[in-house]
Structure formats: structure tokens, C-alpha cells
Prior knowledge:
Elements: H1 21-35, E1 40-42, E2 44-46, E3 49-51, E4 56-61, E5 64-73, H2 77-94, H3 99-115, H4 117-128, H5 132-157, H6 159-162, E6 171-179, E7 182-186, H7 194-205, E8 209-212, H8 219-231, E9 239-241, H9 246-254, E10 259-265, H10 268-279, E11 290-294, E12 299-303, H11 309-321, E13 331-337, H12 341-352, H13 372-388, E14 390-393, E15 408-411, H14 418-421, E16 428-434, H15 437-445, E17 452-456, H16 460-469, E18 474-477, E19 513-521
Parallel strand pairs: 1-5, 7-8, 7-10, 8-9, 10-11, 12-13, 12-17, 13-16, 15-16, 17-18
Antiparallel strand pairs: 2-3, 4-5, 6-19, 14-15
Helix pairs in contact: 1-4, 2-9, 3-5, 4-5, 5-7, 11-12
Amino acid sequence: MSKVTNIKPFANEAFVDFSVPQNRDAMKKALDKVKSELGRKIPLHIGGEQIFTDDVITSINPGDTDQIIAHVSKANRELAEQAMQTALSTFETWKTVPPRQRADYLFHAAQLMRERKHEFSALMILESGKNYAEADADTAEAIDFMEFYAREMIRLDQINETQPLTAVAGEDNRLSYIPLGVGIVIPPWNFPLAICVGMTTAAIVSGNTVLLKPASTTPAIAHAFVELMEEIGLPPGVINYVPGSGAEVGDYLTTHAHTRFVSFTGSKEVGLRISKLTADTADGQIWIKRLIAEMGGKDGIVVDETADLDAAAQAIVSSAFGFQGQKCSAGSRAVIVRSVYDELVQKIVTLTSKLSSGLPEDNYPAGPVIDQASCDKIMNYIEIGKTEGRLLAGGKRADGNGYYIQPTIIADVNRNARVMQEEIFGPVLALCPADDYREAIDIYNDTEFGLTGSFFSTNEERISEALNKMHCGNLYINRKCTGALVGAHPFGGFNMSGTDSKAGGHDYLLLFTQAKLTSRKL
């Protein structure tokens, strides 16, 4: 593999403007290409071996449930153990590959993904139900993660030159960041490319080998990434692709004595279970397992009476209903000062009424939720919400041969209402009035989560107070609470939102490495 030269400072991948006809046509062409390849059988990848199994995960299009995306081979414990042994043996050679060379693999993969951007996005549109802009942003973020983490590994490798240790006469003291070992990467379905790519490449560029267990609803897009990494020449066994049951394969690998770390993104409930499992020491285990976890959120936007209400309304609707509210950063709560509450609520309802539902491949603003279980859960919460507040929009299933739900607004809810406290992960927005901005901030903080939040105001003293008092990992002022950019908005939350891992930030690779000090007497 050739060495990448002339590395420029990191810059975020530009988003595609789909109001331009040529860009829309390019996406439609990519969709046609991806559709022509649907329904194939996808194997496990363990080392250099591709293994097809009789037991499969059938991935379907949530916007058209008659359409099968792929039949994905499913690992059992025996195959998971084979993958573990492969990753262990590969680690012994991969850890010796110079950091700059490991970074070059990511640079090459990023370039190849950039050249095929629409094809990756098209597969996401069909498998996860994202519209054009949401899928494009997901692919752009995946590219960003690879570009950013490659540069970060190079930076850490040069730490002794750029940030030398305190000098001691007669000694040569150096710090190096060495890999941990074999990790289990468990990405979510809601950012099936970006987060999968980010978690995996952060681990491998740091010198670790991984077992990648993709979400069962979006395994095909994860496999497309694995194929890309093989195409650019990543050595076999660095990434081992092992879809499978969480109860059978996930628990087995999480509790394995040779698992050094688990990198997880998903729900609070699953994250807490993994935390408990990793805390136990297996027979033969010689380390404390490291857990990097990004879990749920009950994120919200606070609006005071000095705010630009049109901008606040747009941010609230975008944060609540982008990708059907299926983001851990989704603004599922809005807390509004009472003096502008009615006016702002009307603006929110008006904007929401313009969100028509339909097939993601036709680029409707509102698409399906991911599966039947999610649909049932969301509809149940809507029924609960109807008893806790005033239904202003939605509240029903939307038309279509998929898991469509109308964007739903429930107003006048109490701060302790279940729709204000519990993560719904769907197109449901709860609106809560507050007497003043301080009470609004207090209501915002009244949650077990702490991932994202936003404060709308034109008063600098209040903004300063909000910056200090709103307790979340990513706090935004006068903008939506979704859409974190790699490098600009390191992402991760407090409390039950996870371990504040700050993906896309300068601290992130430290979670996949351990610092080794060497001191030599001269």
C-alpha cells in the first residue's frame, strides 16, 4: 500500500446539495445500482475466510417491508470463538505495524468511500430508512472519522517531539501509546455506517484487532464497510465480521477472558447490561476490561422569551423529527418560557404539518422507523402521551408498506410525565411550559440522561448561565441539538448517556490505547 503524502489539516466532508438536479439524479442512479444487488447472501468474515451459515439474519427495507436487503450469515458461539482466536493471533502482528502505516489504511479507505459516496448512502436509504440528506450526512461522517482518527494516530505517535516530557538530567524519557488487544465493537442501527466506521477504525488505527458485531437490522451496510477495508488491503483478521444474537454471541464475547475492551453504542438498558458483564472477571482474565459506551438520551431545547422564535421552531422540529427522531441526540423535549409558549407552539405545529411521510428512496422528509418492535413501542408511548398532555399533531400510523408513524406533538406536559422522562426513540415531541428561563433549565436538567441540549436566547447573561448549568455532554446555543461534526463537536454524554467518550475528539483514541513510559539512563 502506498504512503499518503502531503497530509492536509483535517476538514469535514462537504454535504451534498440535493436541490441540485444532477445530485438527485446521481443518488437515483446509485439507488438503482444498489437495488440490482439486493437479496444476496452475505458471509461472516473471520481472518481471510468467508463463512456462509444456514442460520441467517434477514435484513429488510423498513420503508417497504416486502423488499429484502440481504440474507446475512449468523455467527454462533463456535464461530465467535474462532473469530476471537483469529483476532488474538492477528493482534501479535498488527500491533507491530507502525502507526503511520496503520493511518494510511484509513486515508485510503476514506478516499475510496468518498468516490463511492452515493452507493453507501443508497444502501443506507434502503436498509435503515434514511432520506437523502440524512444518509449523505451519515456517509460524510464515516469519511470524517477515518480522516480524523488517522491524523490523531499520527499525532499521538509524535507526542514526544510535539509535547515532550519534563527533562531530567541523564535520562531519556519517552511516552508511547500502545494498543490494548482484542476489542468487541457493537455499533447501533441508527448511524449504521458513521458510528460503525468510527468505532471500528478508532480501534484498529490504534493497533487493536476487533470483532465487529453489527446491529441486526442494518448488517448489510456494515458489511459494505468491511468489504471496503478488505479492498484497500487491510490484513485479514484485523476486522472480523460476526453478526449474531446479542444473547448468544454478544454476551459470550463480552464475558470472554481474552476480550480487552468493548466499544458499544446503543440503548441504556443494553449498555448497563454490558457494563455489568464487563465488570465481572472471567477465569484466566488478566486485566480490567475497558468499556467505551455511548447510550441513550432525553435531549431537549430550552427557549426563553428573548429568543428568535422562528429559528427556535425550526431547530425544535429538525431536532425532534430528523430521521424520525431515531437519534440519541434527538430533541424529544422542548421547554418553553410561558410568555412565548403559545406563539412558539403554533410555529412548531405549522412546521411539523409540512413533514409528509413516504418512501426514503423518494426522499420524503419523514420516513419509517426501523422495525415492528420499535413501531409498537413508539405507538404505545403516543397513547401514554395522550393521557399526559394535549395531542397537537400526529398520533397515528402513517400510510405506507412500512413502519411509518406520523410526526407527533404532545403539548402541555408535566416535567415528570413519562414522555418527558423516558427515551422513546421515535417521532414524538413533548412540549413543556416553564415560568421563566431558570425553571426551564431546571426542567431540562431533570432527567437521568445528559447527552445533548440547546438553549435559545439573545440575552448574554442568560446564555452564560445556561452554559454553566445545563448538564449535558454537548450543549448548543441558538442552534439545533443534533448534527455534531467530527473534530468540531466531540460527541458523548453524561450520566446514563454513557461514558462521555467524546467520539470525533482529540481524547478519543486514548480510550483504545494505554500509555507506556520508558526511561533510559544515559
